[in-house]
Automatic annotation (TrEMBL):
Naturally occurring in which organism (per UniProt): Leptospira fluminis
Alphabetical keyword list: Heme, Iron, Membrane, Metal-binding, Transmembrane, Transmembrane helix
Domain Cytochrome c, first and last residues per copy: 84-170
Name used for this protein in its record: Cytochrome C
Pfam family for this entry, one: FixP_N
Domain of life: Bacteria
PANTHER family in the record: CBB3-TYPE CYTOCHROME C OXIDASE SUBUNIT FIXP (PTHR33751:SF1)
Length: 177
């Protein structure tokens, strides 16, 4: 065994024990890490999963239409004839549809929605799909561009309201075949 405390070329190498305070800080850190990891994963609500769930909740509060799903029997608009829904639908139409379908719905870039002509069917079920999913370039018949989807911007409730307004103005929009 060579002497751990060497001296060579005037440089001294010592093998002293670590100071007690240092050892305690080191062991303490390890203990803290173990306790903290168990607490964080097992008992705290600080994880990203909880934060994500919270953000989803906030988002759904700001954009309620995403969760506010209106169901319909046989594709018939449940808001037909409902005065409140009709006036709400008119407001939505004024905001989202007039740019293409004109202020009275009689058409601009998009077709007239107040006449008897329907390019893709005139039933609630068909029109609902068209407004929610849009009419893609592969299906568009007018050659004036596609009709954009509204399922994310409006959602089912507002789309059915718009349709209730349309149906109140245009009797050629039928509940079903
Ligand atoms: C960016 C322009 C644009 C906007 C905004 C738009 N549309 Fe359209 N829409 C069109 C075009 C273009 C067509 C025709 C597609 C084709 O050529 O078949 C169409 C078609 C339609 C049809 C089918 C008409 C028929 O004769 O069969 C309905 C119903 C309709 N839109 C309703 C709406 C409603 C309701 C809104 C608002 C929520 C809306 N659109 C917003 C451009 C638009």
């Amino acid at each position: 065994m060579s002497d751990p405390n060497k001296e060579f070329d005037g440089i001294k190498q010592s093998d002293n024990p670590l100071p007690a305070w240092w050892v305690w800080v080191w062991l303490g850190s390890i203990l803290f890490a173990v306790v903290y990891a168990i607490y964080f994963h097992g008992f705290s609500s600080w994880g990203t999963g909880e934060q994500y769930a919270e953000q989803i909740q906030e988002y759904e509060k700001d954009f309620p239409q995403k969760t506010n799903v209106v169901a319909s029997k046989d594709g018939v608009n449940p808001f037909r004839g409902d005065e409140k829904a009709i006036s709400a639908g008119q407001v939505t139409f004024q905001t989202y549809c007039v740019a293409c379908h004109g202020p009275t719905g009689e058409g601009l870039v998009g077709p007239n929605l107040m006449d008897k002509e329907w390019l893709h069917g005139n039933t609630d079920a068909e029109i609902y799909q068209e407004i929610m999913k849009g009419i893609g370039p592969d299906k568009a018949k007018l050659g004036r561009g596609p009709m954009p989807p509204h399922e994310n911007t409006l959602g089912s409730e507002k789309v059915y309201q718009v349709m209730a307004w349309l149906a109140s103005k245009n009797p050629n929009l039928k509940p079903s075949k």
